[in-house]
Amino acid sequence: MQRSHRWKKKKKKKKKKKKKKKKKKKKKKKKKKKKKKKKKKKKKKKKKKKKKKKKKKKKKKKKKKKKKKKKKKKKKKKKKKKKYT
């Protein structure tokens, strides 16, 4: 393969401008103060005594007997037919 006889011009390399990187400001972290935990004293639980419930005796109610009222039957009066003579 033959090379082309034309002189190749050397291309000037363009200098790339370096972009300045903005420095990010670092936020200072606030240190949290550790709170000391107070130890809680355990309280002893008192056992509750169970009270016995007294059973109440139920009083029996006396049933009153209802007196049945007797209905009086009304007697129908028969009308006497008058005989015409």
UniProtKB/TrEMBL annotation:
Residues 1-85 form the F-BAR domain. GO terms for molecular function: DNA binding; structural constituent of chromatin. Keywords: Coiled coil. GO terms for biological process: nucleosome assembly. The keyword Coiled coil applies. Residues 1-85 are annotated as: Disordered. This is F-BAR domain-containing protein. It comes from Mugilogobius chulae.
